[in-house]
Amino acid sequence: MQENKFESALNVNKGIEQPPTVNPYISNFYKEKRVSTLSEDDYLDGILKGNTTILSQAITLIESSKAEHRVLAQKLIAKALPHVVKSRRVGITGVPGAGKSTFIEAFGSMITSMGHKLAVLAIDPSSEKSKGSILGDKTRMETLCNDPNAFIRPTPSSGSLGGVARKTRESIILCEAAGFDVIFIETVGVGQSETAVHSMSDLFLLLMLAGAGDELQGMKRGIMEMSDIIAITKADGSNKDKATLARALYSNALHLFPKSESGWVPVALTTSAVTREGLEDVLDRINEYFTLTESNGSYTKKRREQSRYWMYESINEELLGRFFENPSVTEKREIYEEMVLNGEISSFAAASELVRIFEDSKQKQ
Amino acid sequence: MQENKFESALNVNKGIEQPPTVNPYISNFYKEKRVSTLSEDDYLDGILKGNTTILSQAITLIESSKAEHRVLAQKLIAKALPHVVKSRRVGITGVPGAGKSTFIEAFGSMITSMGHKLAVLAIDPSSEKSKGSILGDKTRMETLCNDPNAFIRPTPSSGSLGGVARKTRESIILCEAAGFDVIFIETVGVGQSETAVHSMSDLFLLLMLAGAGDELQGMKRGIMEMSDIIAITKADGSNKDKATLARALYSNALHLFPKSESGWVPVALTTSAVTREGLEDVLDRINEYFTLTESNGSYTKKRREQSRYWMYESINEELLGRFFENPSVTEKREIYEEMVLNGEISSFAAASELVRIFEDSKQKQ
Fold first, then answer.
1. Can you spell out the DSSP letters for B29-87?
2. Interface membership of B74 toward A (CB under 8 Å)
3. Residues of chain B with CATH 1.10.287
4. Contact state of A345 with B81 under an 8 Å Cβ cutoff
5. Cβ B77–A218 below 8 Å, yes or no?
6. What digits encode the pLDDT tens for the residues B276-292?
7. Which fold has domain B306-364?
8. pLDDT score at B363
9. Does A265 contact chain B (CB < 8 Å)?
10. What is the pLDDT of residue B191?
């Protein structure tokens, strides 16, 4: 079924006033999304048929913070879980200017042309600091947007990192139930979300520029060390020699890092979305990675560890949420924080006191 | 008062059978420590007089997990807080083999000879994985152990990272109340504690070896990027040229990283504990760092942020502790974890269920 992602994005948002031209990639700019009134079985049915309009609506349901939507979403995910296809989840990040969208457009099209179904999800909690880069970095992905075998879903427009991570992980399940066997999870690379993306990907791909200097500003510390493949982008024209040199530098640096548990030795490559040189190389290395990790068991092991990790992360977030939303805590928190900042009480005594206030308030309920 | 740290370590442990020769630096090997029966005012009085035997006993009190000791320790810390001297807290880590103890011995002696009082604390939660390195890395610090202006306290022998971090931070307060104006907080560099040490230090010093390769194995990712000063150790004899080259390589790499908020540009140096070359250079740079950060306000800002950070970290840990110690949670946790691992339930649904079980069990109490 040929489908226009632009149209489906508009469908989801229908009823909300929109300016005449809308880049579907930034449709999350409209924070109010209407949640459809389908039943969980209607959603599931549509998803299993590969209907991306319904998939998109189901993700909107996941993103909703309303209690009744959360309940429905959990039921839907429980029913979708047995239907997920075996997939390859690739985390992609890059410094601003590395041409992440252009790379995903070119590389993603190559993947769908080989018969794969590709879902591109983004995880980037909005913040004043990173908003500029996110919007600025989003160039069009026209080919992929109009590709019937691709599904592109922009980042949820707001929420804590934990909340956004949960939504993205749940969206992955729905995409896999809809038959998408390759999942790209992308992030801007200058925020706090790289660890989260790394924790939900099988393979982590870092896009770098030759001669990055100022571009590294704000980049998450340690990100190079968590990458399985580093691709130096824009290796074309007058930039090609510089990119080749950068590849050598990164290769040397990668040898200084400890080997990953999977036995994979990280590699540095050069690519060009313009000449398409190096794209096949990236694909070959990704395939090598999966061949290795699927055969030595580390693919399954990593998936299991990630599931466990997210269970505990989520418990942590729920407990903290209950604590910080407690009115007695809200009333006293800043007072104690101020005392801590002024050195009048130790950080640990303040914490104990606040936890005691929290427990007492619940006794009274 | 001339005092032998070896003796005072033995005092703390008296009544417990010990082998004939004991390296005071690994006296934490004996897990059972007797807690003195002093009152909080006795402890405070001794600490304010700079009595390191009593300081040592007070830290043993902090390390105790008994409820009555915790209460007494909190009272003591509250009373000690107004008496802390202005201090410089230096986090020190290094790859195994970098000669951390030898460096601390030589550099620490230099600092005390200048009239400073130096406390050396360690933060390394014991684990099967790191235990070998911790014990293996501890060479003697005889000079410093016998230095009346130095106080050396080994790492608590067991406990979670969060617990050990709390104990170390509380120990810092007592040391500062006892007049120690320079605090070294050291960690092995191959564990999970580097971030914790970084979060309680004004300045972070990384000791590296020239030509480190295998030594980097197990080293915390991103650690180089959080360092303010990198010192290449063992820059003497036939190793000197290699160290000078390494210094250049690290200097180049440091320029790739984003500048720190304080405005400090990280530097790489070479040192030798044997020839003592470069030690003054390290001291000069540390002084420069403090001159800069104290004058531009970032010293105070960082201290405040760290206090706030530890308050929230501690709340987190207390909440998680209550959750995981809950009998209903204990009963069900593994069942849910298994379902998550088998893909029968989403990580987030399992988390919600466990939190619900937790809340229900408390309603019944």
1. GS---PPP---HHHHHHHHHTT-HHHHHHHHHHHH---HHHHHHHHHHHHHHGGGPPP-
2. yes
3. 306-364
4. yes
5. no
6. 999 999 999 999 999 99
7. Helix Hairpins (1.10.287)
8. 78
9. no
10. 64
